[in-house]
# Entry
Amino acid sequence: MKLSPHFTLAEFTRSETAARRGLPNQPGNLHISRMRALCVQILEPVREHFSVPVTVISGYRSQQVNRAVGGSQTSQHMQGEAADVTVWGYGVADVYNWIAFYSGLDYDQIIHEFGSWVHVSFTERRPNRNMALRAYRHNGTTRYARVYEPLDRDDIA
Ligand SMILES: [Zn+2]
# Structure
């Protein structure tokens, strides 16, 4: 099933953890409609801007899968509102900076995740927050800091 011209439901529900542990990861119709909105409002414009494929590392997560991967208890991945993505041939900071500061896209949250991928969300349940964050590790836990201007590079602490 296609969610939008360049994204499929299968990309959003594929999970190695779910497969390995036999966990269910099937979204309902409400979640699917939210994933469509994320694709149309955010991911398709990203693909269009960079003109290369966008890889979805993690999209929808059932509660069981989210727990198994150590996701936040309030993760928007469980709502069908978030995706972790990379863009072929581009660094994470390039993708992050464009979405967060130059695109004009009405995203909810964008997170620079350790220089490895960009987490981006979009919601239809309330106004989007346009909140830019970066994740960092502190004493073994993940914390988030607000980002107010474009990041120089990916290897920030
Ligand atoms: Zn994420």
In short: The two ends are 39 Å apart (CA to CA). Strands lie at 2-4, 7-8, 54-58, 82-87, 109-113, 117-121, 131-138, 141-146.
